[in-house]
Specification:
alpha+beta; Helix Hairpins; SH3 type barrels; Alpha-Beta Plaits; 3 domains
Length: about 280
């Protein structure tokens, strides 16, 4: 008891008191991270847990040292195991590192419509390893954060407003100024379209069978899809009311009858020879 009892009791006290201290320090650290500007609860929880486990490792080593255990081989084993685990889980660790960067710099947030890793949808969840998207046809897409952070990120919502570009073709004999007025007036009547800047329309192309006029209308990012589906019908009705025709491509096929050619003469001679033989 005198030889081993006191070291065991002291080691237990170090572990119990140290575990409580580690819990308190991690809780205080989480609160401190949450108070920081642009903080994220998941990132704060991750760092707090990391601090707690590091403190627990130190506490266990201190308790073993009190018991007279040589901890240098254990430190070496932990370092070697950490290196092996890091090598095996390098893909997952890169996703975690990318997740930390995404949470810190916030190129997108929950609710934004984005295109990341070649996939497009609305962000529903941002975790340390992956970002979850939901498409318009209700498909769930999970993109690794390493792929998101290491590639191009398109955020269609963060700017607050978006511009809708839509082209309409009119016939060559139509009044261009009248058509432009009809298109811009139809767009301006839509409540989703911003008044500043006002809808804009100009001739952008002279096609094979039509004069192409492009409409540019600004709207809230949340209204972009709705406006994209709503705008064509009122513009068509406005052009009809103004007497502006909308052409469609024409294809003319010319069939020419060849009375005489070398190939045709050869075919006729072969036909005559067959008739003589029969």
């Amino acid at each position: 008891m005198t030889t081993y009892g006191l070291p065991i009791v002291l080691a237990l006290l170090i572990f119990i008191i140290g575990a409580r201290i580690a819990r308190i320090v991690s809780s205080r650290a989480e609160l401190g991270f949450n108070r920081a500007p642009n903080s994220d609860p998941s990132l704060s929880r991750f760092f707090a847990s990391l601090i707690r486990y590091l403190l627990l490792v130190i506490i266990v080593m201190a308790a073993l040292s009190v018991l007279g255990v040589d901890t240098s081989p254990i430190f070496g084993l932990i370092a070697a195991s950490g290196a092996a685990i890091a090598f095996i889980l390098q893909g997952a660790l890169s996703n975690v590192a990318a997740g930390v960067m995404l949470i810190l710099f916030r190129p997108y947030k929950v609710g934004d419509e984005v295109e990341i890793g070649g996939s497009r949808g609305k962000v529903t969840e941002i975790q340390l390893t992956a970002t979850t998207l939901s498409t318009t046809d209700n498909v769930k897409i999970i993109v690794g954060n390493g792929k998101a952070w290491g590639g191009t990120i398109k955020n269609f919502t963060s700017m607050g407003a978006r511009r809708l570009d839509r082209e309409f073709g009119i016939s060559y004999d139509a009044d261009i100024d009248k058509a432009i007025k009809a298109i811009t007036s139809a767009a301006a009547e839509n409540p989703r379209v911003h008044t500043k800047p006002a809808p804009w329309a100009k001739v952008v192309n002279l096609g094979d069978s039509s004069v192409d006029i492009q409409l540019r209308a600004w709207c809230d990012a949340a209204d972009y899809k709705a406006l994209s589906t709503e705008i064509s019908q009122p513009v068509k009705e406005a052009l009809d009311a103004a007497g502006i025709g909308i052409p469609y491509p024409h294809e003319i096929k010319i069939k020419q009858h060849v009375k005489s050619s070398k190939g045709q003469d050869r075919i006729n001679r072969l036909k005559a020879l067959r008739e003589q033989n029969t």
